[in-house]
C-alpha cells in the first residue's frame, strides 16, 4: 500500500487537485521554537567569541527551502548555530533531520521543541551476527554469501543490510539483502567491491587495489580461510521520514540536513548522502509548482572545539532543480537524476567551504594567507575564509608545480620553527621593535594582566570544577567517538557539544549550591551581621542566582583577554633576552623572504587562473603599500573590499566581498557527464518506492568533479559557472540570462552602498544610488 501511494504521489499530474493535508508527524510549535532558541543562544554566545553570518540576504524569505550544511564539524552545536543564524538573519525557522539514536534525554527533548525530524539509520541498529561470512565463488557468483555457524532465516530479513567490519581509515562496506536462501546462505542486491571488502570475504592475496582478482582460475577463498565477522541490520522504512519532509516543504517551510550524514573533524567534505537529492526531487515530483530552493550553507569554524572560538556561517546562492530532472525522477530514471542533483549540491557546498586533502595542507594554506596578508592588517573573518578558499583552490590546481612544491616545503618548515619557539606568526613582528619599546610593552601588558586577574580569579576558583569537568568529559567522549568511527581524526567534532552539555548540567547545580550556602549563612547569623534583618532569605537566594552567573560571565570575558596577553608575553621575553633574540630576528628575516616568495608566486599564477586578476582583489594596493609590502594583489577574483565595517543589507552579516562568489549558478546547465555521483547508488535499484531507498546511501568522493563542475564551484571561481554563452531562443535561456542580470544589479547595488557609506559619492550621486537601490530591492522581492 505504501509503495502504491508513493508512486501515485510521484506521478500525479500538475493539474491534479492538491491532496488533503494530513496531520504533521513532527509538528513545529513556533513559540516553543523561538523560546528554546533564545535560551540556547545564550550558551552559543558564551561558547563562541564571534559567529559571523555571510550572504544571509541570499536566503529566500518565503517559500520552501532545503538547507544543506557542511562540513558537519561540531555535532549538535552545528544545528544550534544554523537555526539561530537563520532565525536572526533571515527570519526563517528550519526543521533539521536528526539521527534516531540521538532522540533521547535532553537532546531528544530539545529536538522536539524545534520540530526536528528523527531519521533511523541502518548502521545505528546493526548488531553482531552469529558465525562468519565468506564468498564461495567471488568470480562467477559474487552476490551469493555463505555463512559458517549462521542462522539467516532467524536473524536476517529481506531488505535488511549486511555490514562488514571497519578497519582504520576505511568504513566497513555494506549491502542490502535481496533473498534469504537458507540458514547459511543469502543473496545480496549487488556485489561487494573494493580491496578491503574482497580481502575480508575471501582472505586471498591476489587482489589488486580495485578489488579485482589476478588469478581467475582460483574460484573460491584462500585455503584455510574461516570467514569474517559481520553485523546485521533490520530493514528500515524511511517512508514516514520522507512524508514529514514533503509535508513541511509543500507547506512552504524549511528543512535542514547535514548531507555528510554524521559529524567529523576532517579538513575535506565527506561523501554526500543521496537522501538530500531524494527529498528535493520527491517534493518537486509531488508539488511541481511549490518553488523549492536548495541553499548551500558553509559552516566554517576556527578551532571549533575550543571555548571562545570563532565561526563564519556562509550562505550560497539558491539552487533550483531543472524540471527535466524532476521528469527523469518521475519516469524511472531516478538514479541519474539523483546523481546530477548531488553534483549540484556538492558544487554549491564547495563554493562556501574550505576543503583541503589533509590537516598539514590546511596549515600550510593558512600560513601562506598570513604571509600574504599585510602585516598588522586585521581582516574580517569572511575575508579570511574567502582567502583560504582561493588559496586552497590554487593549491589544488598547481600542487604539482615545482615552484609550489618548493614553497610548500619552505612554509611547512617555517611553521615547524614557529611551533619549536612556541610563538605565533603575527608575533614575529615584535622583532621590528626596539629594545626599550619591547621592555615597555612587556611591562604594560604584565600590569594589564595583573588587573585582569582580579576579575578572573574569583570565577576561576568558584567554577573551576565546571571547567575541569568539561575538559575531562569532552576528551573522554572524543576518545569514545573516535573508537567507533572510521572518518574522525581526533574526535574533536563532539567536544564542543559535550562541553556545552556538561556546563548546562553542572552550572545550575553549582549555582544552586553556592546560593544555598549564602542563604544558609544569612539565615544563621545574617552573614556575620553584614545583611540587615529586613532582607528575606528568598531574596538572598535569588540574588545568588544573579551574582554567581555574573561572576562566570566576567571570568570568561576577562579570561579570554588575559589569555591573549599571556600568549603575547613569550615572544616579548625572547626579544628582551639576548640569547634568544637572535632566533626571533632570524625568523623575522625568514618570514620576510617567504612573504616576498608567496606574493611573487601568487602574482605569477594568479592571472593564469583569473583573467581580471589585477582589477579585482580582496586587498587593495593602497592597503599593501601602507604595510610596506612590495606586491599588492591577492589570489582572489573578487572585488576590493574595505577593511572597515561595511554597510549591511537587512538580514545580512556582511555583504559578500566578491562578485563571482555571489553569482548564482545557472541551475539549467548541469554537467552531462555525471557518472561519479551515481556509482555508489545500486544500478539494480529503480527508486520506485522512496521508503525503501537508503537515506544514507553514499556517493564516492571526487575532488576533481567539485573543482571543475560546470554547475558551479569550478576551479577558482567559487561557484561561478564555466559554461557556454546563454542562448535566448528558449524560455529557460531567457530566465537564465535574467537571473544573471539581476545578480549583476544586486552586486552593483552593493558596491554603490559601500561607496555611499564611505562618503566617496557626492550628495546627488547618493540620491541616484538610493533610488536605484529601491528599484533593485523591488526586483529582488519579485524574484523571491
From TrEMBL:
Disordered as annotated region, ranges: 1-21, 623-713, 746-784
Coiled coil: none
Transmembrane region(s): 449-469, 500-523, 535-558
Tagged with keyword Repeat: no
Pfam family, any one: Acyltransferase
Phospholipid/glycerol acyltransferase domain sequence ranges: 66-302
Bias (Acidic residues): 768-777
GO biological process: phospholipid biosynthetic process
SUPFAM superfamilies: Glycerol-3-phosphate (1)-acyltransferase
Single GO MF annotation: glycerone-phosphate O-acyltransferase activity
Low complexity bias spans: 699-710
Protein name as it appears in the record: Phospholipid/glycerol acyltransferase domain-containing protein
Keywords associated with the record: Membrane, Transmembrane, Transmembrane helix
Amino acid at each position: 500500500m505504501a509503495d502504491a501511494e508513493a508512486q501515485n504521489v510521484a506521478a500525479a499530474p500538475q493539474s491534479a487537485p492538491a491532496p488533503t493535508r494530513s496531520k504533521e508527524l513532527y509538528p513545529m510549535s513556533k513559540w516553543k521554537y523561538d523560546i528554546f532558541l533564545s535560551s540556547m543562544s545564550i550558551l552559543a554566545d558564551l561558547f563562541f567569541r564571534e559567529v559571523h553570518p555571510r550572504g544571509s540576504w541570499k536566503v529566500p524569505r518565503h517559500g520552501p527551502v532545503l538547507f544543506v550544511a557542511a562540513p558537519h564539524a561540531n555535532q549538535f552545536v552545528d544545528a544550534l548555530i544554523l537555526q539561530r543564524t537563520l532565525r536572526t538573519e533571515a527570519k526563517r525557522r528550519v526543521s533539521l533531520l536528526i539521527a534516531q539514536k540521538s532522540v533521547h534525554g535532553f537532546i531528544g527533548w530539545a529536538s522536539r521543541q524545534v520540530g526536528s525530524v528523527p531519521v533511523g539509520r541502518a548502521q545505528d541498529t546493526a548488531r553482531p551476527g552469529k558465525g562468519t561470512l565468506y564468498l564461495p565463488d567471488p568470480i562467477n557468483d559474487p552476490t551469493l554469501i555463505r555463512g559458517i555457524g549462521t542462522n539467516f532465516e532467524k536473524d536476517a530479513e529481506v531488505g535488511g543490510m549486511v555490514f562488514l567490519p571497519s578497519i582504520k581509515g576505511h568504513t566497513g562496506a555494506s549491502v542490502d539483502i535481496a533473498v534469504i536462501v537458507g540458514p547459511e546462505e543469502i543473496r545480496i542486491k549487488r556485489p561487494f567491491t573494493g580491496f578491503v571488502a574482497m580481502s575480508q570475504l575471501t582472505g586471498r592475496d591476489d587482489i589488486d587495489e580495485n578489488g579485482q582478482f589476478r588469478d581467475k582460475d582460483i574460484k573460491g577463498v584462500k585455503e584455510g580461510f574461516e570467514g569474517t565477522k559481520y553485523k546485521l541490520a533490520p530493514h528500515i522504512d524511511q517512508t514516514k521520514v520522507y512524508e514529514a519532509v514533503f509535508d513541511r516543504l509543500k507547506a512552504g517551510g524549511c528543512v535542514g540536513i547535514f548531507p555528510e550524514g554524521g559529524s567529523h573533524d576532517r579538513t575535506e567534505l565527506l561523501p554526500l548522502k543521496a537522501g538530500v537529492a531524494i527529498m528535493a526531487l520527491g517534493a518537486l515530483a509531488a508539488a511541481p509548482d511549490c518553488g523549492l530552493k536548495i541553499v548551500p550553507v558553509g559552516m566554517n569554524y576556527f578551532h571549533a572545539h575550543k571555548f571562545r572560538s570563532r565561526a563564519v556561517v556562509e550562505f550560497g546562492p539558491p539552487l533550483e532543480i531543472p524540471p527535466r530532472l524532476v521528469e527523469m525522477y518521475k519516469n524511472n530514471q531516478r538514479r541519474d537524476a539523483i546523481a546530477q542533483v548531488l553534483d549540484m549540491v556538492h558544487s554549491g557546498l564547495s563554493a562556501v567551504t574550505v576543503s583541503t586533502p589533509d590537516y598539514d595542507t590546511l596549515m600550510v594554506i593558512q600560513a601562506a594567507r598570513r604571509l600574504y596578508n599585510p602585516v598588522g592588517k586585521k581582516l574580517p573573518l569572511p575575508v579570511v575564509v574567502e582567502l583560504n578558499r582561493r588559496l586552497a583552490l590554487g593549491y589544488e590546481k598547481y600542487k604539482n608545480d615545482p615552484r609550489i612544491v618548493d614553497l610548500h616545503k619552505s612554509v611547512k618548515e617555517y611553521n615547524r620553527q614557529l611551533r619549536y619557539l612556541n610563538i605565533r606568526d603575527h608575533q614575529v613582528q615584535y622583532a621590528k621593535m626596539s629594545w626599550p619599546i619591547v621592555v615597555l610593552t612587556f611591562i604594560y601588558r604584565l600590569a594589564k594582566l595583573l588587573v585582569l586577574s582580579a576579575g578572573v580569579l574569583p570565577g576561576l576558583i568558584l567554577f573551576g570544577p565546571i571547567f575541569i569537568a568539561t575538559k575531562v568529559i569532552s576528551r573522554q567522549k572524543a576518545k569514545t567517538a573516535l573508537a567507533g568511527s572510521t572518518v574522525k581524526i581526533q574526535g574533536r567534532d563532539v567536544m564542543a557539544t559535550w562541553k556545552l552539555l556538561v556546563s548546562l548540567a553542572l552550572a545550575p547545580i553549582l549555582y544552586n549550591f553556592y546560593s544555598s550556602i549564602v542563604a544558609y549563612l544569612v539565615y544563621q547569623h545574617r552573614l556575620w551581621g553584614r545583611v540587615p534583618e529586613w532582607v528575606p532569605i528568598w531574596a538572598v537566594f535569588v540574588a545568588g542566582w544573579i551574582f554567581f552567573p555574573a561572576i562566570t560571565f566576567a571570568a570568561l570575558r576577562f579570561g579570554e583577554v588575559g589569555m591573549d596577553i599571556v600568549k603575547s608575553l613569550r615572544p616579548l621575553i625572547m626579544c628582551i633576552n639576548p640569547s634568544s633574540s637572535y632566533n626571533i630576528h632570524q625568523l623575522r628575516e625568514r618570514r620576510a623572504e617567504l612573504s616576498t616568495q608567496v606574493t611573487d608566486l601568487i602574482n605569477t599564477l594568479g592571472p593564469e587562473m583569473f583573467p581580471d586578476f589585477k582589477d579585482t582583489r580582496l586587498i587593495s594596493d593602497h592597503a599593501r603599500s601602507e604595510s610596506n609590502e612590495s606586491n599588492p594583489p591577492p589570489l582572489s577574483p573578487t572585488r576590493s573590499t574595505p577593511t572597515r565595517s561595511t554597510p549591511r543589507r537587512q538580514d545580512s552579516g556582511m555583504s559578500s566581498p566578491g562578485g563571482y562568489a555571489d553569482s548564482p549558478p545557472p541551475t539549467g546547465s548541469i554537467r552531462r557527464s555525471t557518472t561519479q555521483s551515481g556509482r555508489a547508488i545500486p544500478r539494480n535499484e529503480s527508486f520506485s518506492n522512496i521508503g525503501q531507498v537508503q537515506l544514507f546511501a553514499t556517493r564516492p568522493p571526487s575532488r576533481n568533479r567539485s573543482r571543475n563542475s560546470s554547475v558551479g564551484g569550478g576551479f577558482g571561481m567559487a561557484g561561478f559557472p564555466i559554461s557556454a554563452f546563454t542562448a535566448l531562443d528558449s524560455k529557460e535561456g531567457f530566465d537564465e540570462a535574467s537571473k544573471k542580470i539581476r545578480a549583476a544589479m544586486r552586486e552593483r547595488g552593493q558596491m554603490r552602498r559601500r561607496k555611499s557609506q564611505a562618503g566617496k559619492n557626492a550628495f546627488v550621486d547618493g540620491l541616484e544610488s538610493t533610488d536605484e537601490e529601491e528599484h533593485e530591492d523591488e526586483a529582488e522581492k519579485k524574484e523571491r
